[in-house]
């Protein structure tokens, strides 16, 4: 994973509607980047729905949430609509952002990884789940965010 206390790599990726979203769009805000292996997989669906159900916890902490995987915009759109996800899903089809954040697993898929970027673009927290079949439950994720 990317080292904590380093400058977060800049990126621009399309969201599910095709709008280009850049990390710099959120200057002055905290951003939680959630790398995940893929749309419509059981664990990723459970994970992102857990975060959806508790999105007010991110809002209370003034944190913008961005989900990133290598899935297409069309896949993200369907996945987000079906699950009523209130945060942007970004399409990293070339895996360039996952590479920049050192969030690629050994099979070339995105790890289940979390990066919290502060208001100045510095990485406050960066880690990945050891097993891809397990995700960070909301209470554990918030504990790590609050401690950062």
UniProtKB/TrEMBL annotation:
Gene Ontology molecular functions: thioredoxin peroxidase activity
Pfam family, one: AhpC-TSA
Annotated Gene Ontology cellular component terms: cytoplasm
Enzyme Commission code: 1.11.1.24
GO biological process, alphabetically ordered: cell redox homeostasis; cellular response to oxidative stress
Active site: 44
Domain of life: Bacteria
Residue ranges occupied by any Thioredoxin domain in the UniProt entry: 2-148
Reactions mediated catalytically: a hydroperoxide + [thioredoxin]-dithiol = an alcohol + [thioredoxin]-disulfide + H2O
Enzyme class: oxidoreductase
Record keywords: Antioxidant, Disulfide bond, Oxidoreductase, Peroxidase, Redox-active center
Similarity-based family: Belongs to the peroxiredoxin family. BCP/PrxQ subfamily.
Self-association and partners: Monomer.
Function noted in UniProt: Thiol-specific peroxidase that catalyzes the reduction of hydrogen peroxide and organic hydroperoxides to water and alcohols, respectively. Plays a role in cell protection against oxidative stress by detoxifying peroxides and as sensor of hydrogen peroxide-mediated signaling events.
PANTHER family: AHPC_TSA FAMILY PROTEIN, THIOREDOXIN-DEPENDENT PEROXIDE REDUCTASE
Protein name (Swiss-Prot/TrEMBL): thioredoxin-dependent peroxiredoxin
Species whose genome carries this gene: Pelodictyon phaeoclathratiforme (strain DSM 5477 / BU-1)
Taxonomic classification: Bacteria, Pseudomonadati, Chlorobiota, Chlorobiia, Chlorobiales
């Amino acid at each position: 994973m990317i080292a904590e206390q380093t400058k977060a790599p800049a990126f621009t990726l399309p969201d599910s509607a095709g709008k280009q979203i850049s990390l710099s769009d959120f200057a002055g805000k905290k951003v939680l980047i959630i790398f995940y292996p893929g749309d419509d997989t059981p664990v990723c669906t459970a994970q992102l729905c857990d975060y959806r159900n508790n999105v007010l916890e991110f809002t209370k902490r003034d944190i913008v949430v961005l989900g990133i995987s290598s899935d297409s915009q069309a896949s993200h759109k369907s996945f987000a609509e079906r699950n009523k996800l209130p945060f942007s899903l970004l399409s990293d089809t070339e895996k360039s952002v996952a590479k920049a954040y050192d969030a690629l697993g050994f099979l070339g898929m995105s790890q289940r990884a979390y990066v919290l970027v502060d208001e100045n673009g510095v990485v406050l927290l960066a880690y990945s789940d050891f097993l891809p079949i397990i995700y960070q439950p909301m209470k554990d994720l918030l504990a790590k965010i609050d401690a950062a």
